[in-house]
Amino acid sequence: MEEILGFAALFFGLGLAAAMVWLQNRPKTEFKVSLLPHTPLMFAGAFIAIVAVAYLLSVYGVKLPERGGRF
């Protein structure tokens, strides 16, 4: 169940970011102002995707190697 949630969030974030990039870069035919803020939604989708990747890595048990030293 955890994997399904992680992959759903990953695909949602990537889809949202891709849709906003497509909406932002399509050719403009009319001089109308869009009521949808493309850039913040694009960054929100990218943030959701990054958090989903971190979640999936933690679900699958991937750990960072221990670093030696004082800290």
From TrEMBL:
Keywords (A to Z) from UniProt: Membrane, Transmembrane, Transmembrane helix
Transmembrane segments: 41-62
Protein name: Uncharacterized protein
Organism per entry: hydrothermal vent metagenome
